[in-house]
From TrEMBL:
<keyword id="KW-0560">Oxidoreductase</keyword>
<dbReference type="InterPro" id="IPR015590">
    <property type="entry name" value="Aldehyde_DH_dom"/>
</dbReference>
<dbReference type="InterPro" id="IPR029510">
    <property type="entry name" value="Ald_DH_CS_GLU"/>
</dbReference>
<dbReference type="Pfam" id="PF00171">
    <property type="entry name" value="Aldedh"/>
</dbReference>
<dbReference type="InterPro" id="IPR016160">
    <property type="entry name" value="Ald_DH_CS_CYS"/>
</dbReference>
<comment type="similarity">
    <text>Belongs to the aldehyde dehydrogenase family.</text>
</comment>
<protein>
    <submittedName>
        <fullName>Aldehyde dehydrogenase</fullName>
    </submittedName>
</protein>
<dbReference type="InterPro" id="IPR016163">
    <property type="entry name" value="Ald_DH_C"/>
</dbReference>
<feature type="domain" description="Aldehyde dehydrogenase">
    <location>
        <begin position="14"/>
        <end position="475"/>
    </location>
</feature>
<feature type="active site">
    <location>
        <position position="249"/>
    </location>
</feature>
<dbReference type="InterPro" id="IPR016162">
    <property type="entry name" value="Ald_DH_N"/>
</dbReference>
<dbReference type="InterPro" id="IPR016161">
    <property type="entry name" value="Ald_DH/histidinol_DH"/>
</dbReference>
<dbReference type="GO" id="GO:0016620">
    <property type="term" value="F:oxidoreductase activity, acting on the aldehyde or oxo group of donors, NAD or NADP as acceptor"/>
</dbReference>
Amino acid sequence: MSESVFRNYIGGKWLAGEDTQANVNPSDTRDVIGEYAQAGQAQAESAIAAARAAFPAWSAGGIQARHDALDRIGNELHARREELGALLSREEGKTLPEGIGEVGRAAMIFKFFAGEVLRTGGEVLPSVRPGVSVDIVRQPLGVIGLIAPWNFPMAIPAWKIAPALAYGNCVVFKPAELVPGCAWALAEIISRAGLPAGVFNLVMGRGSVVGEAIAQHPGVTAVSFTGSVATGRHLLAATAARQAKVQLEMGGKNPLIVLDDADLDIAVNCAVQGAYFSTGQRCTASSRFIVTDGIHDRFVTAVRAKLQGLRVDHALKAGADIGPVVDAKQLAQNLEYVDIAVREGATLAFGGQALERETPGFYQMPALLTDTTPGMRINREEVFGPVASVMRVRDYDEALAMANDTEFGLASGICTTSLKHATHFRQHAEAGMVMVNLPTAGVDYHVPFGGRKASSYGPREQGSYAREFYTTVKTAYTSAG
Ligand code: NAD
């Protein structure tokens, strides 16, 4: 393996893998960002062993060291957000402002959990037995396997790595195959943050090899996964068999209800921003617009007009609103779903086709499908691209029923000026996150994130709620003797 290969980070050392993989820019497939090491099973196992060896000292070490390390990582991410944002946009395809924003968010997450280190408390209770006291403390779990998707290559690793380390665990991090560049850059920053060797390990490689090794290995106490439902369910079976703790964040088919009384500008902004920005490649993206009769036609006309004004182009080009789709496979899937919808009777009201730009990349015009019904595949299956459909409804009650009529339950939104309907919706939307007059995508970094039904499994991520997953509770009884 040549010196120009980006290596894995295991036990405090940068190590070559069994193989390498080229990291290609989806805005310009002639642009190779680098060659990245691909670990085999043995290397994944050596990372788990390194993390296990580091755990006793790290978990017993002081909270000041944990705080300082996380704070340093957050500071460096913040200081380098423009450079790293450009790397993110180059490898994943979201626009430069979106890339920079995501790195800034990752920085804030590390700084938030630096603070959480100092706020990890317990409880002291009287016992029901005289002379006995009870205290309840949170303890680290051990080695945590973190398996991430490609669509937020900085923020999702950050919201898994930061709490894992904050609460005293050791980490084996496996990024998605398509985005090793951000993972490597983040690992390089972490490698200089003052953590003992083995506390944090980066293992790049295939899901079927490295991910599988993490899922199966008895030395991995817990696995936090974000990705597709199919992989998540497979991981659940593997980890349940050995009673490992597991947390899964998966797909969505997120609805945005627009009622007759909505402010049209707000509704159109929520729809376009929530469904199409970041190329629609967000698990919280709106993909079903559920619109009441009285505003339906005005809404469709205004969304179409807004889409006409958006520029799909190279992610790093100034003025690009929407970057490319992440790869050829995802683009083919998006185009196929547009075809399926039309074959099932939908009207293609705008876009949907593949585009050519100055550079060879995976460009697609945002797609708006109208005249769709709840049974169509476009309204039941996650596309994960810049594709959204409109369903026409009579009133709020029908809209709510339709919004909840899905196997998923990640985010759910409503645009209305009615306090009554907004309040009822917040109460009755079957989703982990509910937005009123805001896009379904776009959340704060200091509060819980997650869903219901097929979208999620296990405790919430982010905010102080992250401690539910990354710690275990111990109840201690003491008698004065
Ligand atoms: P994916 O399931 O294909 O891959 C996710 C990760 O799992 C990758 O690192 C992959 O290498 C790994 N993996 C694959 N096979 C594995 C196996 N057998 N064992 C262990 N690991 C394995 O998902 P993706 O295409 O990278 O991401 C897109 C999906 O992620 C979409 O469904 C999207 O909705 C979802 N997503 C969800 C959230 C959320 O928080 N709910 C956030 C972002 C993305």
